[in-house]
Specification:
The chain is of the alpha/beta class and about 325 residues long. The longest helix has 14 residues. The radius of gyration is 20 Å and the shape is globular. The protein binds NADP nicotinamide-adenine-dinucleotide phosphate. The site of NADP nicotinamide-adenine-dinucleotide phosphate has 32 residues, from helix 3, helix 4 and strand 14.
Length: about 325
């Protein structure tokens, strides 16, 4: 075991609206491997998950997340194996996904960590049976509740949440349309992920394509993007349509203009609900059970985009804001 603990820290507060465009915000540092105190565990981290939330760690989210000051180790979705434990809830060898320092080794009290569900590996426990899969499940079945034959549209459909949201809507009998950037990604959405149709928001007229593909209107919209894509879907929303606002990545770096087509919500009796996944924990057990059984039966396919090595972290984390990923972007930093 190496005696150096590599870390990614906040090097400085971003100069621009977001940190995502600034490689220099990621600071490399080395420290000693810490020793767990009373009630603590030490993990050897094996994977980091590149979440849009990394942006929020540095910029903050008012009333929700305090920004990390310069010099602090980045914290985010990650997973590792317990290598020392003074906590009776965690044994040496346990695989633990959750929120933890982006470092080779991290101390934790266990808060914010879970055990990977039995029978599944760590990436699956972190992603499909963790926050990513649960967001898809909560937004789709807790909020939108698609019925057989409904037209369901998902934005950022080729991202981590989008590939799961589309597949589970199809399992409910919906006709699914994914919106993503680029012809290649759109091709993969239909050929590999199982979407019935795909719209390339970078090159197509989204509103016009939706009108062609869904002449009766969009019954359900699972939105990860906000901005002009949300506006185009609102123009095509069906009477009594349901919209789940999971995220608004188009505005994280570039706060844009307001929506022009919001009034369709009144004209067509539309319900729109945002959600912060951790406040819907009443659906976690059900969601993990359903997602796990769909994985076992082969009805749900995982799409991971794996980068290799500790040094890959800054580019991997920033790449999701330009759509460089297909499926959830992970960085593998060590074997368990
Ligand atoms: N509500 C919650 O509790 C919760 C929890 C986790 C995440 N989220 C949110 O859920 C959303 C999706 O997360 P994820 O983990 O699936 O993301 P992800 O796997 O990191 O994928 C993000 C995708 O967003 C697309 N994108 C980036 N900039 C865009 C823009 N300006 N306009 C349109 N699309 C853009 C890119 O694909 P393209 O190539 O298609 O552009 C990118 O691949 C994010 O908004 C995130 O903040 C919410």
């Amino acid at each position: 075991m190496s005696d150096v603990n590599r870390q990614w820290q906040v090097a400085h507060t971003p100069q621009s609206e977001g940190m995502c465009q600034e490689r220099s915000c990621f600071g490399y540092a080395e420290a000693q491997i810490p020793t767990p105190g009373e009630g603590e565990i030490l993990t050897r981290n094996t994977h980091f998950a590149c979440e849009p939330l990394v942006h929020a760690m540095v910029r903050g989210v008012p009333g929700r997340i305090d920004p990390l000051p310069a010099g602090e180790v980045l914290q985010g979705h990650a997973g590792g194996q317990v290598i020392a434990s003074n906590n009776p809830s965690y044994a040496v060898g346990d695989c633990v996904p959750g929120n933890i320092d982006w470092a080779d080794y991290a101390l934790s009290t266990g808060e914010g960590l879970t055990h990977a569900p039995d029978g599944f590996d760590l990436p699956t426990g972190m992603i499909t049976l963790g926050m990513t899969g649960l967001c898809a499940y909560i937004g789709m079945f807790g909020i939108c509740k698609p019925a057989q034959g409904d037209v369901v549209v998902v934005s950022a459909a080729a991202g981590g949440i989008g590939v799961i949201a589309g597949q589970i809507a199809k399992l409910a009998g919906a006709y699914t349309i994914g919106i993503a950037g680029g012809a290649e990604k759109c091709g993969r959405l239909t050929a590999e992920v199982g979407y019935d149709a795909a719209i390339d928001y970078k090159n197509d007229d989204v509103a016009a394509r939706l009108a062609e593909l869904a002449p009766g209107g969009v019954n359900v919209f699972f939105d990860n993007v906000g901005g002009p894509v949300l506006d185009a879907v609102l123009l095509n929303i069906a009477n009594r349509g349901r919209v789940a606002i999971c995220g608004g990545i188009s505005g994280y770096d570039n706060p844009g203009t307001g929506l022009e087509n919001l009034i369709t919500m009144a004209q067509r009796n539309v319900m729109m609900q945002g959600f912060w996944y951790s406040e819907h924990s009443y659906l976690f057990e059900e969601g993990i059970s359903c997602l796990g059984s769909w994985l076992r039966s082969g009805q749900l396919k995982e799409v991971f985009d794996m980068a290799e090595g500790f040094d890959a972290v800054p580019d991997a984390a920033r790449g999701i804001f330009s759509g460089a990923n297909m499926g959830k972007k992970l960085v593998h930093i060590a074997d368990a």
